[in-house]
Amino acid sequence: MKSIRDQVAVVTGGASGIGRLMALSFAELGAKVVAWDIDEAALGRLEAEAKGRGLSVLGIKCDVSDKEDVYRRAAETVAAAGPVDILVNNAGVVSGSTFLDTSDEKLRRTIDVNVMSAFWTAKAFLPSMIERNRGHLVTISSAAGIVGVTGLADYSASKFAAFGFHEAIRMELRRLKSEVRTTVVCPFFIDTGMFEGVSTRFPFLLPILKSERAAARIVGAVLRNRKRLVMPPFVYSVYLLRLLPVGLMDAAADFFGISRSMDAFRGRKP
What we know:
Layout: E1 8-12, H1 17-28, E2 32-37, H2 40-52, E3 57-61, H3 67-81, E4 86-89, H4 104-132, E5 136-140, H5 153-175, E6 181-187, H6 211-223, E7 228-231, H7 237-241, H8 246-255
Parallel strand pairs: 1-2, 1-4, 2-3, 4-5, 5-6, 6-7
Helix pairs in contact: 1-6, 3-4, 4-5
């Protein structure tokens, strides 16, 4: 297990949910953490919490959907903390409505936050990692980036894209024989509030994940240089289901309740 003491870790969407938990966990391990988030008040609360625990966490307001803002905040981050060693692309949004009921603005926002932001942050920080031949790129995808889900058309599309982008970057780093590591994470629903109201038919197979446990496992995967983390393990069965005719795969999705998991979705309250 590697040490990340004194390394600089950037966590996007780092002021709430698993982003906040990961930021604090990295800091507890001795990393200098920079949390990016669009919610300035939440960043202030995170900084105060970290300070009260004797941890190093700097909050920087950033709209990760805005390329120019990402590049500005990247320069600010490096100036304040030094070259970035760990980049966690965690920021994400969810509309939670069927495709035709989702506004054009929300569709665009989902792609900009969940996909394009990873392009801009990688452009900002990856060159330095490659030059120094060290670093770790973490992409938070989703189980919805492995199988499409009713009510998550834009979200699933964005997470499929995030997974594909990460996979391609991993292959490019491999060809370069770079020591920069990568981890892609595909969790089922997490109880952060972002997916408030979602359901699971068989919680012993597909439990709604506890945020503390999910964050701990992601941090652990980084420390162990795991290339892929799928939670819970039953999600791996999707790869096997894809070998079946589409009709049988759809029947399996119905049986396990995946097709109706978003029926009572409420999402995070403002």
